[in-house]
Structures are given as structure tokens and as C-alpha cells.
Amino acid sequence: MGGLTRKKVQRKFKIRGYTLRVEALEEILSFLSHFDDAEDEAIDLLLDEIEKESLKSSILDKDSVHRVVSLLLEADAAVEESLTPSTSNRSTLRVIDAFVIPKFRYDPVKKVFYEHTGRLPIHGDASAKAALYRDRFQLLFQRLSRHQHFSKPVFDTEMSQVGCCEISSIQSLIGQTGRRWIMGVISQLEDGHFYLEDLTASVEINLSNAKITTGFFSENTIVVAEGMMLPEGIFQVSTCGFPPLEDRDESLALLAGLDFFGGGKLTAEETLRLAGVEKKAVNDMFVILSDIWLDSEEAMEKLATVLDGYENVEVVPSLFILMGNFCSRPCNLAFHSFSTLRMQFGKLGEMIAAHPRLKEHSRFLFIPGPDDAGPSKVLPRCALPNYLTEELRNHVPNAIFSSNPCRVKFYTQEIVILRQDLLYRMRRSCLIPPSTEETNDPFEHLVATITHQGHFCPLPLTVQPIIWNFDHCLHLYPTPHTALFGKSFRCCQKQNLRTSVFELQLLESDVQKTLS
User: Considering only 1-15, 401-415, 447-461, which range has the smallest mean pLDDT?
Assistant: First the structure.
């Protein structure tokens, strides 16, 4: 252990009122060597357990520390032994359906989040639609207010005058001159006229000479704009961009243990244990496939090739994620082959059951596509109907059928998945051409849009309808470890402030290359 770790341990114990003898410090450092990637959590857990002991003195010797360390290491070893290969995947993997994700709202007066405890009907009233926009705005505004460049300085200093960009409410622009910074939602209140709206008022904007940052600027996106009011009552925008990102750890530190992800609250001990097990699970992998057309012989042959390949590997994948569409034709009102589709799902179940190692040790997650059977194209979409999947369930009892989008908690990793052709719709909905100053890649513009907006689908509701009361299921706050898109062409990846975003599909021509 290095000198920095020694100083960290001594500092944390001193804060709690303890003094460490040399032997006790060595014992603690030996304990921390088991948790290289989670030192802080291990120290905090050790301190919590020591405080539960009946100590005669605040000066800790080796014996008093060794007793607690031994108990923690024994508990950790017992948990690892219980995670046998047949049960480890099931105990460390959790799939969260969109319709069970808890809903939190921000109180701008108390500056805290609180959980909504009432019933959330599918068909919301008019107030639910207004709350959708208000919740999105307040979520980003509280994040922006903590940013060093947009937070109001306590003291007026020369540095604060240069570096601070204080946000003004739109209502306060009346009668004001000079440069101002405002934040609002882009909306079209009149045909051909675009406005910025916040919680106080709205103002017409002129984007013709605006310099923009990376991303797709469309209706419903929330932006931070710099400019000035013209005599005609129009806000002339000179610079326009999305609210800056916030590091995941900073967001979590301010949420006081609230479970935004929906995977359940974990104690410090459980988090530490999972982090240790996750570090050793170097062979765990996910296989992600999109557009599994069950009515296409070629697609099914390629899928069989994939399953055959993974059946014979040393360590089988932990999870197969199979995303729709599951039929080459849209399952709309003109579709009358549901009995045939049900039979095809049964054949898929037989195919999976013919691979005993995959059936026993892997999990299979099915996520519907935009043209699959369901009540509508609105997001979030419910899971595939039981009528279609009943025969598959008989062959693969541990198959999981979840909503679109859905979330996956794997050890400590948080993964969000959406099957939607979002890039195509975002490009069509742009008000102004994307900036080419930083990148020409449309996918990078898409990643910047969804991460900075903190939302999977910041499109107008006329372009992509969303269930008003369940808009929170599409929020990306705090930013997850991984965001995954399934779509109709090409595969790509982008890292954005420690959040990995993937866009994937099963490319039939590349399957054989991947396995060879």
C-alpha cells in the first residue's frame, strides 16, 4: 500500500475520533488489499463496524482491529462461496421493467427530491402533460445550478465577474438590456415562430446567427442560450448549447441514497461485496442482438449459428439480449398472422432449449421493437403479449420479457436499453443543421443530445408519443454506466463522461466473421 492510502486511512480514522497504533494500521492496510477498486467504501465499512464494538479506548491496537477485519473477511468469503456458477448470474443480474421504476420529483423550494407515492394511471389528465415538461426542466435546472460556471457567486470578486454566467428567468428579460443567459425549452407556439419557455414566461427567439454546440437542436430540447433582447421583443441568440453534464458520482452524492434506477437500495457492505465479486468476474459477457426476424429463414439460420458458437465456448454468456422487431412485417391492424408468430416464438424456444448449457447457465431477455405486437407505438412499450410467448416460456422457463425501454443491474453496473430508430427521427426534427466544428458523426451528435438532456427521447410528443405519467422511465439521471440502442443499421460506440453509449444490430453478413 502506498503512502497516500496510509494518509487516507489515518485521516478518516482521526475524523471519527480514533488513533491508530502502527500494528493496527498494518492490519487495516492488509484488509484494504482485498478491495483495491473500492478502498473508500472498505474504510467506511470498517469504521462503521468498529463503532459497533465496545472499545475501552479510542486508541486502536492490532487485536481490536483484527477482530472486526476477520469477521468482514469471513462474511465476504461466505458470500462468494454461495455464488456458485449455477446461481451467480441469477443473484447478480436484475432486469427492471419501465413500469415499476420509482418516480421522483424535485422540490425547488426545499431543494430536495421526493418520491411520488400515488398511483400512476396509464391515461393521465392534462396536468400530467404539464408535469412532464416541468419535471424535465427542473431536473436539468437543479443540475445546472451546481455547475461552477452557472452558479451565482457568494462574493463579488474579479474572477466571479469573468467566469460566472448567471441564469436569468425569462420573465426578468422585460425591460432589460445587455447580454443575458437564459435556460428554457424550445417550443413552437406559432407556426414558423420558435420560443424559449421556462417556468415563468416564454420569449420568441431568433436562431439565425446562433453559434451552437454538438447535438441535435429540436423542439422539446432544453437549451442554455446567450443573447440579448431586441426592441421588437425577440431574444437574439448568439450562443446556444445544452446544459453541461454532471459526473455520476457527484449526482449520487446529492441524492441521499434515493433509488432512481429502480434496482433496489444497497448497503455499503453489499456494494463493497458486489464490487469485489464483479472485479473477479472477468469472463462474464452479454450478447446483444437486434431485429430477430422469426419469419426469416436466413435470420434464424444465423441465430442458430450464434447459439451453436456460444454453446461450445468455455464460459457461456451471462445474458442474451434479443431485441425486436421480431417480425419482418409491422404488427399493425393489417397484420393477421398472430397465430403463426406465436408458433415461430415456440420454434425459437425449441432452438434455445436444444443448447443445454445456454439454457441452464444463461438468461434470455426479450425487448419489443417499435413495430412489434402491442397496444400502440407509445413509449414506454409494455412487454410482448403472453399469447405470443407462452410456448417459448414452456421451453425456456427462465426467459425474461421486459418493456421497451428497460434497465439491467449487473453487479454494480447500471445499464439502460432502448430499441428505437432514434437517430433517424432526431435528424429529421432538427431546427438548424448540427454543428460540424467538433464532429461530423451523427451518432456523436445523438450521444451528446441524450446525455446532456438526461433523457432517452427528447423529441416532440407529436414525433414520438410518450405516456405522460411514465416519462420518468426515459430519464438518464444519474447518468448510467452504459446506454444501449438497438436500431436498423451499423454498430458504433461513444464514451461521454464515463457513460458508454452503444448502437447495435445483428448484421447477418458479419455473424460468421465474428465467430471465426
Answer: 1-15
CA angle 17, 23, 25 (to 5 degrees): 50
Strands (E), 7-164: 19-20, 59-60, 93-97, 104-107, 112-115
CB-based contacts of 210: which residues, under 8 Å, 6+ apart? 225, 227, 237, 238, 239, 240, 432
Give me the numbers of helices (H) and strands (E) for the chain, helices first please.
Answer: 16, 21
E runs forming strands in 119-201: 167-168, 180-190, 193-197
Cell numbers for 204, please give them: 420568441
What's the predicted TM-score (pTM) here? 0.79
CB-based contact 59:19 (threshold 8 Å): yes
Where would I find the H helices in 18-112? 22-32, 39-51, 62-82, 85-92
> What phi and psi, each to the nearest 5 degrees, are found at residue 203?
-145, 140
> How many other CB atoms sit within 10 Å of the CB of residue 256?
8
Q: How far apart are CA 391 and CA 270, in angstroms?
A: 37
For residues 273 and 269, what is the distance between their CA atoms, to the nearest angstrom? 6
Beta bridge partner(s), residue 97: 406
Q: Are 369 and 291 in contact (CB under 8 A)?
A: yes
- Closest CA relative to residue 358, chosen from 406, 299, 306, 310: 310
DSSP-derived secondary structure letter, 490 = -
Q: What is the DSSP letter of 509?
A: G
8 Å CB contact between 420 and 485? yes
Residue 157 DSSP label: -
Beta bridge mates, 320: 287, 364
Q: What is the pLDDT of residue 88?
A: 47
Q: Which one-letter DSSP state was computed for residue 377?
A: S
Retrieve residue 190's grid coordinates.
Answer: 406559432
Across 209-218, 248-257, 505-514, least confident range = 505-514
The runs of H, that is alpha helices, within 335-384 are: 338-353, 356-361
The rounded distance, in Å, linking the Cα atoms of 300 and 504 is 18
- Find all residues with CB under 8 Å of 138, minimum gap 6, and list them: 105, 106, 108, 199
